[in-house]
Structure formats: structure tokens, C-alpha cells
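Sequence, please.
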């Protein structure tokens, strides 16, 4: 998670614009973090390429330098690639890998530890959307009010990602690359790209993006959302789409929708295990499809509630929150935690005389009155899976860190291991290490009811999560 301020920086840097084809709005907010490490790009026309538009979000970690550089130069790299105009997918991939190589060879970045995710969209004159993604920022398309995935989050526990990591000599610990990085693809992060015998695509962490293409359909395709994980850790893709549509129904502009979305995700207290405490950046791109700006707003307002799953239609939660709850369940079951509020002297003697000082047993909190207060895990369907059904397909990946085993000998990923196979000391230590993460998840629900507030002190502090060994700037 990293360090947090005693009070969040709520100031937003917003912009908007439009031409005859597209309308966009963007907004960025520092939030609880001690610095702003995100960058973004909004270009209705890329350089001299008439009819081509570009939008990108870059979520930095370990510093802002790589994100800022990418925000200025990545679109140039893509447009100037020889394949641009005839094979845009290849141009995007070459652009991502090319800018990564540019950074590696730049003496100004030789000792820079920072990196960034990148999710970009190129919109072509023939109404195609090309999304390139490396990392865990995300692009989601609203089609008839339904969230359609335009990218996949690159996490270390994903099957293909974990395979590449281990083949390249890396390992996964607590769901992180080499116990450090919480995502598996990024620009920069050169400490994970040191194997000179491997191509750039095969390194422990790679900048190679996935690329998806979708056609803009005039009476169905509404808008595209690009955002960093500061948004997606708090709300699901469908919730974000429905939140924006609801704002439009209430006669709010796209810029106001961006700003309201960040306010909705901002935690009221920084002791939440990182959820709602990250930098936040959002871009919304609306497809006018021959309409004026006002006609598009009227068209969208008339569609609310008539098409697709709306604000109240789901009961889901983002994967990070799901992971916290799963980890809580599994660790409690494995450790047979006493039903009393804390360990007694007798309990400690029975547990090989290990000592845990006043560790409270987390309680499960199940329900909430509103959809956005109590979401479950969700992955939006791709457009190829789109059907007449109003509900989006859900897909749950078991990313619980508690299902990892790290062998001392070779520290490789094991999908079959379970914490119960470890020593009792190891299991209790792990539970103690993660208890603040669980408490943070519990606090998220109470946070929505206003039971937490900031301490009002003009100083920085580290969250409990950081103090327990989960801190690093690469989240």
C-alpha cells in the first residue's frame, strides 16, 4: 500500500473535450497517497493522423517517472511504428515494448526503480476500438448498459502469468512477484527484467500488452471507461458503468461523473488495507455516433433503466475485497481460532506456546443496504459473449494469498498447496501478518456508514498493512 497522508488530497485535475465523433472527460485525484504517481493522455487526434484518437491511463508505482514518461511518449511510439495504419495491434505491441526499451537505454532511468501499468485505446476512422493493456489498470465498454471487458488484469496468480514468472526464474509469494510486485506486466520495473537470455516478452515482468479490438455499433455502443486500479479495487466493472449511466440520467456531465466516481471510491479513513486509499484516474470516452453532444446526453438519459443491468441489479464485490474475505475464512478454519475475542494463556500454551499479543478475531460482516457497499467478485464478459441476457457473466479466480505455498528450497509457485501443510508456527505468523488486511476489509463497510474519520493531523503515517510487512510502493 505504501505511506498515506493524515488527510486525503481531494483536489481533482479534470478536463473535457469533443469533436464530431467523440466526447471525453478525464479526472485525476491524489487521494490518501503521499504523492501522485498516475499519468494520463487524451488526444482527439494523434499527431497528424486524421480520424485517429488516443487515450491512456498510466498507474505508476515506486515513483512517478516511468508513468510520466509513458504518458508523454507512448502514443508517439505507437503512431510512428511502421505497422500503424495497416496492423494496429502489432503497432501497439511494438509501441509498448519499444518504450520499455527506450527507458532501459536512457541514462536518466538507469537507477530508477519505478514502473507503471498502461491501458490505452486507439480509435480509428472506421470506428474500431483497439485497447492495449499491460498491468492491472482496466478498460471497460458500455454496450446497452452492460459492462464488456476490453482488457484482463495481469495478476501474478493468473495461470499464464505465473507460468512465465516461474520459467523466467521468479517466484510468487503472497500473490506478488518475488514477494514484491502485485502485478505481472508493466513498463519499467527493470529489476524484474534482468535475464539477458530471454526475450522481453518472456521476462519475469513484461511490458508486452494484450490487445483487443471491437467495432463501435451506433445504436448499442455508449462509452468506454479507462481507469487505474484505485477505482477497480473499490467497484466492479458493472458498478462503474451503472454509476456513470445513473449520473447521466441525473443530468450530470461526463466530467462530473468522473469526479463523483472518485469521491465514491475514496475511503473515509486510511486504515482500510489500501482499498480506497490509492491514486485515482478515470477517462470516459463517449461515442457520439452522428449525434450532437446534447443529443447524446438525451439519448443516454432515455436509455437508463430500459436496457442492461442497472445500478441495483447485482450483488457483487471486486476481487481484492473477495480475496480478503476468502483469506479470513481459510485462515480461521486452518488455525481453529478460538471463539473468544482474544487468545488466552491456555490457548497460547496449546499452540506450542507461541505468543500473539492481543490479536482480535475478525468477525464476518455480510450484508449492506446498497449494491455499491457490498459487491461480490465479477469479471465482465467480452463482446463475443454478449447475449440478450441482461446479467453479465461472472467469473471468479481464486487469488487468495493463503492458497500459496513457498518452499524454502526453490520458492516456486504451488497451486495445490494449502496453509494447513505448513508448520503451526508458520500458519499463526501468517495469520498475524494478514490480520490487519482482514480488519481493513471489515472497516470498508463501516466506512460507508461514516463511522471512521481522519485524525486531522498534518503528518504522514503508514497503514497497519505496511507495518505488518505488506508495504511496498509497487501496488
Amino acid at each position: 500500500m505504501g505511506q498515506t497522508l493524515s488527510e486525503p488530497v481531494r483536489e481533482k485535475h479534470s478536463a473535457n473535450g469533443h469533436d464530431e465523433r467523440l466526447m471525453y472527460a478525464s479526472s485525476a485525484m491524489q487521494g490518501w497517497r503521499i504523492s501522485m504517481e498516475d499519468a494520463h493522455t487524451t488526444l482527439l487526434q494523434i499527431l497528424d493522423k486524421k480520424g485517429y484518437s488516443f487515450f491512456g491511463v498510466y498507474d505508476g508505482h515506486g515513483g512517478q517517472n516511468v508513468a510520466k514518461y509513458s504518458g508523454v511518449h507512448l502514443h508517439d511510439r505507437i503512431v510512428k511504428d511502421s505497422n500503424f495504419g495497416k496492423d494496429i495491434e502489432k503497432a501497439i505491441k511494438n509501441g509498448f515494448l519499444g518504450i520499455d526499451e527506450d527507458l532501459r537505454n536512457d541514462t536518466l532511468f538507469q537507477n530508477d526503480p519505478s514502473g507503471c501499468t498502461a491501458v490505452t485505446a486507439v480509435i480509428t476512422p472506421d470506428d474500431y476500438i483497439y485497447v492495449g493493456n499491460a498491468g492491472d489498470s482496466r478498460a471497460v465498454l458500455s454496450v446497452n448498459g452492460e459492462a464488456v471487458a476490453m482488457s484482463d488484469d495481469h495478476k501474478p496468480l493468473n495461470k499464464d502469468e505465473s507460468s512465465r514468472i516461474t520459467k523466467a526464474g521468479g517466484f510468487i509469494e503472497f500473490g506478488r512477484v518475488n514477494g514484491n510486485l502485485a502485478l505481472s506486466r508493466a513498463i519499467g520495473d527493470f529489476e524484474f527484467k534482468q535475464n539477458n537470455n530471454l526475450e522481453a516478452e518472456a521476462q519475469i515482468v513484461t511490458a508486452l500488452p494484450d490487445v483487443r479490438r471491437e467495432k463501435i455499433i451506433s445504436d448499442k455502443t455508449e462509452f468506454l471507461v479507462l481507469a487505474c486500479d484505485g477505482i477497480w479495487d473499490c467497484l466492479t466493472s458493472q458498478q462503474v458503468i451503472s454509476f456513470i449511466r445513473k449520473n447521466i440520467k441525473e443530468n450530470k456531465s461526463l466530467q462530473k461523473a468522473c469526479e463523483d466516481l472518485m469521491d465514491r471510491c475514496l475511503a473515509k479513513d486510511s486504515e482500510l488495507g489500501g482499498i480506497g486509499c490509492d491514486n485515482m484516474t478515470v477517462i470516459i470516452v463517449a461515442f457520439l455516433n452522428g449525434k450532437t453532444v446534447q443529443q447524446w446526453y438525451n439519448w443516454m438519459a432515455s436509455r437508463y433503466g430500459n436496457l442492461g443491468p442497472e445500478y441495483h441489479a447485482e450483488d457483487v464485490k471486486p476481487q481484492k475485497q473477495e480475496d480478503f474475505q476468502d483469506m479470513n475464512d481459510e485462515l480461521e478454519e486452518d488455525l481453529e481460532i478460538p471463539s473468544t475475542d482474544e487468545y488466552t494463556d491456555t490457548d497460547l500454551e496449546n499452540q506450542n506456546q507461541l505468543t500473539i499479543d492481543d490479536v482480535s478475531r475478525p468477525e464476518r460482516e455480510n450484508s449492506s443496504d446498497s449494491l455499491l457497499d457490498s459487491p461480490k467478485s465479477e469479471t465482465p464478459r467480452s463482446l463475443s459473449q454478449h447475449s440478450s441476457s441482461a446479467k453479465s457473466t461472472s467469473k471468479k479466480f481464486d487469488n487468495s494469498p493463503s492458497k500459496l505455498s513457498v518452499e524454502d528450497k526453490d520458492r516456486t509457485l504451488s497451486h495445490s498447496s494449502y496453509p494447513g501443510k505448513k508448520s503451526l508456527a508458520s500458519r499463526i505468523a501468517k495469520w498475524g501478518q494478514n490480520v490487519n488486511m482482514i480488519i481493513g476489509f471489515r472497516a470498508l463497510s463501516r466506512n460507508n456508514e461514516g463511522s471512521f474519520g481522519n485524525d486531522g493531523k498534518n503528518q504522514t503515517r503508514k497503514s497497519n498493512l505496511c507495518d505488518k510487512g505488506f508495504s511496498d510502493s509497487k501496488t
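The domain at 3-152+180-303 is CATH 3.60.40.10 (Phosphatase 2c; domain 1).
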